[in-house]
Design a protein that fits this description.
Layout lengths: L1 H9 L5 H47 L15 H6 L7 E4 L4 E4 L7 E7 L4 E9 L6 H6 L5 E5 L5 E6 L10 H7 L6 E7 L1
Antiparallel strand pairs: 1-2, 2-3, 3-4, 4-7, 5-6, 5-7
Length: about 190
C-alpha cells in the first residue's frame, strides 16, 4: 500500500515534454486562427462602416447648394470628421496638416474626399481596404453611388457600377469580389452626384 502511494505521488504532475507538446499545439492553432479572426472582425464592421458613410453621403446631398451646377464645390473632409467624431468605428488622427479619418477596414486605411467635375460630383475614396470587406462594402454603398471602382494591389481599376456615361452598368457583386486582391491593398472609389 505504501508502494502504491509513492508511485501515485511520483505521477502527480505533467512532465516538461507533455507541457511543451500542449503549448506547441496551442501556439499552432493560434497562428492558424488569428488571420481568420481578423478577417471575421473586418467582415462584421463593414455594414456599420457602410451605414455611417451612406449617412454622410445622404447628408452631403441634402445640404448641397441647390440650383447650381457645382453643388459639391469645396467639399472637404471636415464634414465627415465632424460627423464621425463620436463614432467608435472610425479613428481621427491629427496629422499636422489636417485630420485623417481611418476607416478600420484595413491597417492604416484612410478616407479621402475629392470634388469631381469642378464640384458637380464628389468621390469618397477608401484606401488600404482588406479583401474581407469585398464585396460587402460595395453592396452597402451601391444604391447611393453613381459609380463604384475598385483598384486592387496590382493597380488595375475595375468599375463594378456606372449609372452614367456612355456605357451604363448596374452593380455587379461578382465583379466586386474578383476585383479585390488579398490583403490590405484595395482602394474603393465611390462617386456621387
Amino acid at each position: 500500500m505504501v508502494r502504491c502511494a509513492q508511485k501515485n505521488l511520483r505521477q502527480a504532475g505533467f512532465s516538461l515534454i507533455e507541457v511543451s507538446i500542449v503549448t506547441a499545439i496551442v501556439l499552432l492553432l493560434a497562428v492558424i486562427a488569428i488571420p481568420a479572426v481578423g478577417g471575421y472582425v473586418i467582415e462584421n464592421k463593414v455594414p456599420k462602416v457602410g451605414e455611417e458613410l451612406a449617412r454622410f453621403v445622404l447628408q452631403t446631398q441634402i445640404n448641397a447648394q441647390p440650383g447650381t451646377d457645382t453643388p459639391y464645390s469645396g467639399i472637404a473632409l471636415a464634414g465627415l470628421t465632424t460627423m464621425v467624431a463620436d463614432s467608435n468605428l472610425f479613428t481621427i488622427q491629427d496629422s499636422g496638416s489636417g485630420d485623417t479619418v481611418l476607416h478600420g477596414l484595413g491597417k492604416e486605411g484612410a478616407i479621402t474626399l475629392a470634388e469631381v467635375a469642378s464640384g458637380a460630383q464628389f468621390n469618397l475614396i477608401l484606401d488600404k481596404v482588406n479583401h474581407a470587406a469585398c464585396p460587402a462594402l460595395a453592396s452597402v454603398m451601391h444604391r447611393l453611388m453613381d459609380r463604384i471602382t475598385i483598384k486592387g494591389g496590382s493597380g488595375t481599376d475595375v468599375t463594378v457600377k456606372d449609372s452614367g456615361g456612355a456605357n451604363p452598368s448596374e452593380y455587379n457583386a461578382i465583379a466586386a469580389r474578383s476585383a479585390c486582391e488579398k490583403g490590405d491593398v484595395n482602394t474603393f472609389t465611390f462617386t456621387a452626384s
